[in-house]
Specification:
This protein has helices at about 5-10, 20-35, 70-80, 140-150, 165-180, 215-220, 235-250, 260-270, 275-280, 305-310, 345-350, 355-365, 370-380, 385-395; strands spanning about 35-45, 50-55, 60-65, 90-95, 105-110, 115-120, 155-160, 185-190, 200-205, 230, 250-260, 285-295, 300, 315-320, 330-340. It folds into two domains: about 5-120, Beta-Lactamase, CATH 3.30.450; about 130-395, P-loop containing nucleotide triphosphate hydrolases (Rossmann fold, 3-Layer(aba) Sandwich), CATH 3.40.50. Strand 1 and strand 2 form a beta hairpin. The longest helix is centred in the middle third of the chain and has 16 residues, at about 165-180. The protein is α/β, with parallel strands linked by helices and about 400 residues long. The chain is built from 14 helices and 15 strands. It has a seven-stranded mixed beta sheet, sandwiched between helices. Strands 3-2-1-6-5-4 form a six-stranded antiparallel beta sheet, with helices on one face. A two-stranded antiparallel ribbon has the order 13-14.
Length: about 400
C-alpha cells in the first residue's frame, strides 16, 4: 500500500463512527510495519492531525486526520500503551501491547499548543540483526569489534547520531558474547528502556521517577558479580565516570554514546571532566556508525559532474525511482562504520595530552583510521548509495 492508498483508506472511515479511532490506529500501525517505518508521527496542527512516517531516515507526510478526532486517536494509542488517557498535559511513554514475537513498538506523547503529539517508535524486526554478521559491517570493522568482544575488561563505546543503529549493534554484541561463551560469562544490562530481549542476559530497566537512575543502577550492578555490563547510553559525567571505573576494575563494559564521530567521543569524555589516564586505560575501542539509504536497482549512472556534487569519486549512481521503491530511488539502508583503536600509541598519547577533537582526528588518520568520509566515498563508488545521500547524511563539509 502507498501513502495515497493509505490516505484514501483512512478517508473511507466515518469520523463520527464509534470505532473510527481504533480502526484508523490499527490500519496506520499495520501500514507502518509493511512500509518498514522506524517512527510514526501523529502531529496536531490547526488543520488537523498530520500523519507522517519515517522510512529509511526520511519523514514522509501521508495524510491529515480531522482535528475533531485527534484527541480520540491519541487516546486510543495511549490505551494500547497503558498510559493515562485523562492526562494530556504531561509527556508519557509506554510500550504498545503486541503479540509475542511481533514487532516491538513504543509510544511517546508530548503536549503542544494544538494538543498532544504522539510518536510511535518501531524497533527492528525480532528476527533481524541478531548477530554481528547481519549488521552489514565491513570486514575490517567486524573483525576489530569481534576481537574487542573477547576482552575481559575495558569499555567498548558504540557511537553515532540518533537512529544510527547503536542499540541494535549493542544487542548484537551481547548475543555474540552469549553465543560464544554459552552462558559461561555473567551478562547484565542497564537500559532506558529495554528494547529487546537477549537470551542469557539479566536485563534491567531504570526508573528515574522511583530514584533508580543509571548511575545508581550501575553501582548496584557491580555487586551482582557481573563480567559483562551493557549500559544503554552514557548521558552524563557521573555515569561515564562509574562506567570507566567498572572497566578499570575487571569488567567488560558495552555502551552507546551520541556523537558525530569516534574522535568526538574522546573529546566529549574529556570535556565531561574525566581524567585522561582513566580514558586512556579504561577505553578499549570506539565504533562510529551512520546510516545511509541504499540505492534501488532502478538507479542510473551519474550523468556528469553535477550529479557528483563535488565528491572526489571516479564513478557513481544516482536515484531514478520505480514502483518498487515508491518513486524515491532508495530501498533500505546501509551502515557506514568507522573504528578507533584507543590502544594505538598515537591515540593514547593524544588523549593524555588532552588534545582537542581536530587534533585527535589528525592523529587517528595518521595512525591509519579509515574515517567516515572515506567509508562514504567508497560506498558511492561501489554504487551502494548516491552522492546526494552522502551529502544529506554527512553534510557539505565532507
Amino acid at each position: 500500500m502507498r501513502f495515497t492508498e493509505l490516505a484514501q483508506a483512512i478517508a473511507d472511515h466515518d469520523p463520527t463512527g464509534p470505532r473510527y479511532a481504533s480502526e484508523v490506529v490499527e490500519r496506520v500501525l499495520a501500514f507502518s510495519r509493511e512500509a518498514r517505518a522506524s517512527d510514526v508521527h501523529f502531529q496536531p496542527g490547526e488543520g488537523g492531525l498530520d500523519l507522517r512516517f519515517r522510512i529509511d531516515g526520511i519523514l514522509h507526510h501521508a495524510a491529515t486526520l480531522p482535528a475533531r478526532v485527534a484527541p480520540n486517536v491519541v487516546a486510543r494509542l495511549k490505551v494500547l500503551a497503558d498510559l493515562l488517557t485523562y492526562r494530556a498535559d504531561i509527556p508519557q511513554e509506554g510500550r504498545i501491547k503486541t503479540a509475542p514475537g511481533a514487532l516491538e513498538m513504543r509510544l511517546c506523547t508530548f503536549p503542544t499548543v494544538f494538543g498532544e503529539k504522539a510518536v510511535v517508535r518501531l524497533f527492528a524486526d525480532p528476527g533481524r540483526y541478531l548477530t554481528l554478521g547481519e549488521l552489514g559491517l565491513t570486514e575490517d570493522v567486524a573483525a576489530f569489534l569481534a576481537r574487542a568482544l573477547e576482552m575481559t575488561s575495558g569499555a567498548i563505546v558504540i557511537s553515532g547520531p540518533a537512529g544510527s543503529g547503536k542499540t541494535t549493534t549493542l544487542y548484537a554484541c551481547l548475543r555474540e558474547i552469549a553465543a560464544r561463551t554459552q552462558g559461561a560469562r555473567a551478562l547484565v544490562t542497564l537500559e532506558d528502556p529495554v528494547e529487546s530481549i537477549v537470551a542469557g542476559a539479566a536485563q534491567t530497566q531504570v526508573n528515574a521517577s522511583a530514584g533508580f537512575t543509571l548511575e545508581l543502577g550501575l553501582k548496584s550492578l557491580l555487586r551482582q558479580d557481573p563480567e559483562v555490563i551493557a549500559i544503554g547510553e552514557i548521558r552524563d559525567p557521573a555515569t561515564a565516570a562509574v562506567a570507566l571505573q567498572a572497566a578499570l576494575s575487571g569488567h567488560l563494559i558495552l555502551t552507546t554514546f551520541h556523537s558525530g564521530g569516534v574522535c568526538e567521543v574522546l573529546g566529549r569524555l574529556l570535556d565531561m571532566g574525566l581524567e585522561p589516564y582513566a580514558i586512556r586505560s579504561g577505553l578499549r575501542a570506539v565504533i562510529g556508525l551512520k546510516l545511509v539509504r541504499k540505492l534501488c536497482d532502478c538507479a542510473r549512472p551519474a550523468a556528469g559532474p553535477d550529479d557528483l556534487l563535488g565528491l572526489e569519486v571516479a564513478t557513481a549512481r544516482v536515484p531514478a525511482g520505480c514502483p518498487r521503491c515508491a518513486g524515491t530511488g532508495y530501498l533500505g539502508r546501509a551502515l557506514l562504520a568507522e573504528m578507533l583503536d584507543t590502544e594505538n600509541d598515537r591515540i593514547a598519547h593524544a588523549i593524555l595530552k588532552r588534545t582537542d577533537v581536530r587534533g585527535l582526528e589528525a592523529e587517528a588518520r595518521a595512525s591509519g583510521l579509515i574515517d567516515g568520509r572515506r567509508r562514504a566515498l567508497a560506498a558511492v563508488e561501489a554504487g551502494l548509495t548516491s552522492p546526494a545521500e552522502v551529502r544529506r547524511v554527512l553534510g557539505f563539509s565532507l
